[in-house]
Each structure stands twice: as structure tokens, then as C-alpha cells.
Design a protein that fits this description.
- The protein has seven helices and ten strands.
- It is an alpha+beta fold.
- It folds into two domains: 73-149 and 232-262; 150-227, no CATH class.
- The strands form three sheets. Strands 1, 2, 3, 4 and 10 form a five-stranded antiparallel β-sheet that branches. Strands 5-9-8 form a three-stranded antiparallel β-sheet, with no helix packed on it. A two-stranded antiparallel ribbon has the order 6-7.
């Protein structure tokens, strides 16, 4: 499963998928036929010719030029009425699995996340049990409000380049000062890359404990226990927008025609 979750409405789900599958078959057949005649290295002129043919086929099927249905399918994404500036929207959940992503945070706290709420199993697109999801998200909101807001982050060497690590305090400070001099927007002052974990805004990171241990690959690491100034505010708001989305669907006359899709 991927990073983001999207809400869609279908006036005819099965016809929508049938049209997209028909287009995919036409596309594969056409590209294969041309490659058999001209080889794998196609000229730009040939590619443009194929794209033009496929665009015409897509229009016949009620699809956009990329082969996605626009006749029976509508993406739902609206600003939250509660928190219009939030990254989460009615119909869009940013479920990223990095250390600060909501699924990772809730999982570390033992609180049900989006998977437990909507139960996608192995499907990328599916019809949730919206009433069950409503109960689950409310439980998660209440549990998160009781949490004290501590976080844990594991810091270990880059598994793809374990020898490329700083080897002295002086080298560490030199690398850090170099990052301070780099120009970046305030929205990207907290980041992780192959060099380490950086918190370059004025708030920094309030660390309460550093614990030696092993990461999921059994490599030596340090677990940093820290607390954010705003605690769980962002994540509570995110869950409240998830609840807002569920209520949006349940208030429709045809909630059974609304689907969630995990990005691939």
C-alpha cells in the first residue's frame, strides 16, 4: 500500500472499471504491435502517433487522455470545515509512513490507524464499512487526546552506506553547520536524509531520553524520546478531518457508491 488515501464517487463503478480495462488492453496491444515492427527504441514521431491514437480511443470510452474515467468517476477533495489549512482534506488523507506520518505515530502509540479504521486488506480501492470506521476514528481521537504527546525516533546509520557516517564531534558540527547555511523554506526545516535527522527551526527538538538499541534490521541505533511543542494537535486534527470525511459520505443519499483508494 502507498502513502495517501483518496475518496471517490462512482455513478457506475463496474462500467468505470470496464472502460479503463478496455483502454488498457487497447494500449498494451498497440504498443506491442508497434514494437514488434520497429523494435523497442521507438522514435518520438512514432510515440506521438500512438499517443494520438490512444487519446482518441480514450475519448470514445469516456476517459481522459491518460485512460482514467471521467464519466462515471469523480474525485472528492474539499477543505475541511474545521481546519481548512490542514494537510488532510475531506476526501484526502496524507497517511505517509515516515517517522512523523500519522500511521507511524498511531502505530507506535498502539492506537488504531487508517488501516484499522477502513480495513482495506489487499485492495487498493474498496468500499469501507463507513459506520464501523466512524466508531473506530472516534475511539482513536479519544485515545490520542489522552496521550501525553511523547514520540520516539530511531537514529541509525544509512543501511545502504553504513560506513558513510561522521567519525568525530568536529565532523558532526561541520556537517550540521553546513545544513544551517543551506537555503530552505521554513516548511522544510525539519527533515531526514542520508546524513541524519535535522531540526533547524528555532524550536529545535525537545529530547527527554536517548536510548541505545537496535532498529528493525537489528542494526545498532539510538532511540530518541522527544516531545513536540504542540503535542498531538496536528494528528488529532487529522483524525477529526477523517471523521468529517466519513460523516460527509454517510450524509449522502448513496454512501454505498463512495470508495477509498490507497495510492500505489
Amino acid at each position: 500500500m502507498g502513502l495517501d488515501v483518496y475518496l471517490s464517487h462512482y455513478s457506475n463503478y463496474h462500467q468505470s472499471k470496464a472502460n479503463e480495462e478496455a483502454y488498457e488492453k487497447i494500449s498494451v496491444k498497440l504498443w506491442d504491435e508497434v514494437r514488434e515492427q520497429e523494435g523497442d527504441e521507438l522514435s518520438q514521431k512514432t510515440k506521438e502517433k500512438i499517443w494520438k491514437i490512444l487519446e482518441a480511443e480514450a475519448i470514445k470510452l469516456g476517459l481522459d487522455k491518460y485512460g482514467s474515467d471521467v464519466t462515471y468517476h469523480t474525485r472528492i477533495e474539499e477543505d475541511s470545515k474545521l481546519y481548512p489549512e490542514h494537510n488532510f482534506k475531506i476526501g484526502y488523507f496524507r497517511s505517509s509512513y515516515n517517522d512523523s506520518g500519522i500511521e507511524r505515530i498511531l502505530g507506535n502509540l498502539g492506537i488504531p490507524g487508517l488501516y484499522e479504521m477502513f480495513c482495506p486488506e489487499d485492495a487498493y480501492e474498496f468500499q469501507p464499512d463507513w459506520n464501523y470506521a466512524l466508531e473506530m476514528v472516534q475511539d482513536s481521537i479519544e485515545l490520542l487526546k489522552k496521550d501525553k504527546g511523547y514520540r520516539v525516533e530511531s537514529i541509525s546509520a544509512n543501511m545502504f552506506a553504513p560506513d558513510q557516517v561522521v567519525k568525530s564531534p568536529a565532523e558532526a558540527l561541520e556537517l550540521f553547520n553546513g545544513k544551517l547555511k543551506e537555503k530552505r523554506s521554513k516548511d522544510f526545516s525539519w527533515f531526514t536524509n542520508r546524513d541524519g535527522h535535522f531540526y533547524l527551526d528555532n524550536k529545535g527538538l525537545q529530547v527527554h531520553a536517548l536510548l541505545p538499541g537496535k532498529d528493525m534490521f537489528q542494526n545498532p541505533c539510538t532511540f530518541a524520546i522527544y516531545k513536540l511543542k504542540d503535542g498531538n494537535k496536528y494528528y488529532i486534527q487529522a483524525l477529526e478531518i477523517v471523521k468529517e470525511t466519513i460523516l460527509y459520505v454517510l450524509n449522502q443519499k448513496d454512501p454505498q457508491t463512495y470508495y477509498l483508494r490507497w495510492s500505489g
